[in-house]
Amino acid sequence: MFKRATEIQLRLLDAIFGCECFLSEIIVAILLVSLARLREDPGYARPECDRPVHSIITMSIGNGKASSFINSFPLPARIRVSTIIYCETTTTIHQLKMLLPNAKPVKLTDNVTIHAPLSRQGHGPGIIIIRDDTPTSQRNERSTLDPEPLQKWAEESYTVVQVTVSSDHPAVKEDLHRAIDALGGHDNCDKETGYGVIIYSPSFVADIVDEIDKYDEIKAIVSYGRLTRTPNKPFLYHLPEQGTKEKSESGVIYRYPEVVSASFIIPSHKDFNASSAAVAHTRCLSFLKKELDGPWFDLEEIWDEHTKYEFDERSVENTMSTMVQEPYVNHIPTMTGGIGREKLTSFYANHFIFSNPEDTKLELVSRTIGIDRVVDEFVFCLTHDKPVDWLIPGIPPTGKELRIPFMAVVNIRGDRLYHEHITWDQLTVLFQLGLMPEYLPIPYDLPNRPDSQAGRTLEYRVPGAGAQTADKMVDESSVASNEMFSYAVRERSV
C-alpha cells in the first residue's frame, strides 16, 4: 500500500511539470511532506530513483554548489530533482536551504575592499585590515587551505574592510576614513561596539597610530610588528623575535622566535608558518572578541550539531553545511580524512558517514572549550561488523566489540568548523581485534647484548593493552598504573 501511495504522489509531481505558478510549489511542498511521513512509517517501501542524478545533486550540495546547480533548471525539473533527492536520502526542502554563506568581496576603490561576514549568522562587528601586496618573488609555493586575511576574518563573522598599501597607494589616512565610512554604512556590520584594526604591514604605515587615535570608533589595534609609538587604545603586538610574552596595562606583546618575518601570518607569503599563524590568529581572536564584544557563538552547540549530522542523521550534505568553504579532517593514526571541500565531501560520503556500524556511539569523557576550539576526550564504541576503512584500513569485519580512547581537537571559525584533528591509540585497536600478539621478534641485534644463539630469537613484550585503555580514560583507578614497567625482552626457541 505504501509503495503504491508513493508512486501516485510521484506521478502527481510529474503531472504539474508544466505549471510554473505559486500554487504548484505549494502542491509540491504538501506532497513532499506526505512523502516524509510515509518514509518514517515502518511499512514504507522506497521507490526507485534516478541514482546518477541523485549522486550529482548530493555532491553538488556537499560542495556548496546546490543552489546554482538546481536553480539552473526550469521549475518542473527542479521539482523532479527535489523529489529524487528526497527519495534516495532524507534531504528535505529545509535541508536544501542549508547552503554555504556566499558573500563576495566588493571593491570600493582600487585598494579598498569590503567583505560581508561569511557565517551562517550573517552579521558581526567591523574590522579594518591594512596589508601590502605580497610581491611575486615572495610568494609561497606550498599549498595551504588557510585563506588570506580578508576571507579568514569574514569567516570569523566580522564585516571586513581591507586597505592594500603600497608605494602606489600612500594615502592611508584617506583610505582609513573611507573604510570607517564603509563599515558605518554596511547593513551586516554591528556598529555598536566599535571597530578593530589589524596591521599586517606596519613598515608601510609609519604614522598610522596618530590617525587611528583620532577615531573614537576604533577600539582596538593588532599589529604584526612594532608601530612607531604605543597606541592610546588597547593593542596586541605579534613580533618575529626572541623573547617571551609581555603584558602592560593597555597591551600585550607576543613573540615568535621560530618565524623569520612578520609575514609568517600571510598564507601566500613564503615566510608563512602554519603553526605560528594558527596560534597568533587564536590570540588575535581572543583579544578582538573581548574588545569588540563578539561575535560570540556557542561552540559546543556547533560541534554537537556537526556530530549529530555525522552519526545520528548520517547526512553528508548537512555535515558539510556546518563547515567553512575549504575545511579539512585529519585522522592522524591512519592518515585518512579529506583536505578541502571536494575531497572531504567524498571522504564523508564514501568512507565515513555510511561506513560506521549501526551501534557506533561516542562516550564523552571530558570537554575543553576555548575561544575557537573544542577539545574532546571520548571513547569511540562500535562493533566491527562491517568494513571501517577510515579506522582499520584493509581489515575485513571481525565482529569484535571495540572501545577506543579518542581525542578530537576541533577548530571552529565563526559559526562553522574549519578542521578536525582526530587521534586515537591504534595499538589498542589491534589488541582488541586480536591482531596484535603479546610478543614480537626484535629484527636486529641490540647494543651491549650478546647475539642470540642459533635457533633462538629475542622478542619484546608489545607495550600496549586492549579495552583497559578506554577504561582507564574513563576511570583513572580502574586499571593499575605502571604495570608495563615490568615488560622485558625474552629469548625464545624458533
UniProtKB/TrEMBL annotation:
GO terms for biological process: polyketide metabolic process. InterPro entries: Cyclase_SnoaL-like (IPR009959), NTF2-like_dom_sf (IPR032710). This is Carboxymethylenebutenolidase. The chain crosses the membrane at residues 12-36. Keywords: Membrane, Transmembrane, Transmembrane helix. It comes from Aspergillus flavus (strain ATCC 200026 / FGSC A1120 / IAM 13836 / NRRL 3357 / JCM 12722 / SRRC 167).
